[in-house]
Hints:
Radius of gyration: 17 Å
Structural class: alpha/beta
Order of helices and strands: EHEHEEEEEHEHEEEEEEH
Helix content: 10-25%
Largest sheet: 12 strands, mixed
Strand content: 25-35%
Number of helices: 5
Shape: globular
Distance between the termini: 37 Å
Number of strands: 14
Amino acid sequence: MIRMAAVAAPFGRDMAECFARIADLTGRARADGVRVLALPEACLGGYLANLDGDAEGPPALAADGPEMRRLRSLAGDMVVCAGYCESDAGLRYNSVVCVTGDGVLGHHRKVHQPLSEDSSYAAGDGFAAFDTPVGRLGMLICYDKAFPESARALALDGAEIVVCVSAWPASRTNPAPDLADDRWTRRFDLFDQARALENQVVWLSANQSGSFGDLRFVGRAKIVGPGGEILASTPVDGGMAVAELDVQAALAAARRSMGHLRDRRPETY
């Protein structure tokens, strides 16, 4: 059995506050027996204040810098996924890293960029799964999950667990009075469940909550089983969704009769 958790919480520009919140979250997760923890997109330094193309970006961090060493120290014996703004060769990427106290297990740069996000970040160029102490894992960032090919590429690479970290906002053009009823909250949930079901994988969805700049985030972190069922979730105002699952048994049961990866007919697509 693997106890896993996904977080919905607010993160801004103050790096000391970000690390204080991460320290609290990792401490609580460890005390609860969690082995894999998904933190939101841009939890180190915050996301963009708007998606109009003129927002000042978060601090750009090196993938092997002191912040990553501090994150690894907080992770300890847990597998922790966390989003940040990566600096590499003069470019900035919206990235997510997977670490334990022993080092970096995996890394992903956001491929799909909504609205004017490309004014702030360069785009990643691929999807790859990697081995961890809790099984083979893949990572996506926010808008990546709107494209079925993203999660499918990870599933075909053997991912058993997919972690999608987000800073997913509510609708700006037609916001609902109740954030739980917002159309972008509904889409966030639908994408999580559909991607888990169509690939028959365990899905951890972390998200920012609260507001930053012009954006109001929908929270709703969750863990979804390989049948598309929500095993645990947070409200829109945040929290930590925790579930325990025998991943191998759950995947085997989901794929026993209707194996979506096995039954593909790629020559016809």
